[in-house]
Amino acid sequence: MELNDTLKTIAERHSNRLFAPDPVDEELLKTILTAANQAPSAHNQQSWRFIVLRNERKKGLAHMISDDAANYPKASATLLRMASRTILSAPAVIAIVNTGELISHGKELLKVDSELSYDFFRTMEIQSSSAAVQNLLLAATSLGLSTVWLGIMYLIKEKVLSYLNEPPEGEFMAIIPIGYSLKKNTGPKKRPLEMIVRYED
Fold it and tell me: What's the first-to-final CA gap in the chain, in angstroms?
């Protein structure tokens, strides 16, 4: 089957950890953020926030991560330092955080046990923001830009939220360096569908 533009973009998206110094145009960033904001969200709450870090704020985040790496075992510390270098390499970084608004809304909506309500709506916030992140990654790829989702940042999520001046009520979701790739990256080979799909009638 011939791939349409959307499927081609999905196939072309790969994580990139080394960026060229060229800046990302402001209009391109706005286009990518608009695409992220179009993602589906539970109860259409859009309980996410996008924070664009550049220049000194981006460097400050990278240095904070690198400094904190010493507090972790070798494997985690290595990944944190790699993330710091990637952030420094990129001309811009987009942070995505949950606001906690859906969690607050859910307590009034469900009228069930508060712990169950919290877990339920926290999960829905994470699902919603994950969809926004995927939109962001694909939009960037379609415009010739490269990205990477730095999952290791979750280890220091409280410090990241504090650095971003975001309240702890929400949930840290993602740090996405964005820019132009310094070298072509084909990405890892994926498992065949036969290994991960089961059909039931």
Answer: 25
pLDDT in tens, 105-147: 776 776 666 777 788 888 889 999 999 999 999 999 999 999 9
Other Cβ atoms within 10 Å of 164 Cβ, number? 17
Residue 112: CB partners within 8 Å, gap ≥ 6? none
- The residue type of 16 is N
Q: What are phi and psi for residue 179, nearest 5 degrees?
A: 170, -160
CATH topology of domain 5-179: NADH Oxidase (3.40.109)
8-22, 66-80, 174-188 — which is least confidently predicted? 174-188
Is residue 185 a contact partner of residue 14, using CB atoms and an 8 Å limit? yes
Spatial distance between the Cα atoms of 110 and 114, rounded to a whole number of angstroms: 9
* DSSP track, 172-194: EEEEEEEE-BSS----PPPPPHH
Query: In this structure, what token pair is assigned to residue 161?
Result: 């939220």
CA distances from 156 to 9, 10, 42, 55, 152 (A): 31, 30, 26, 22, 8
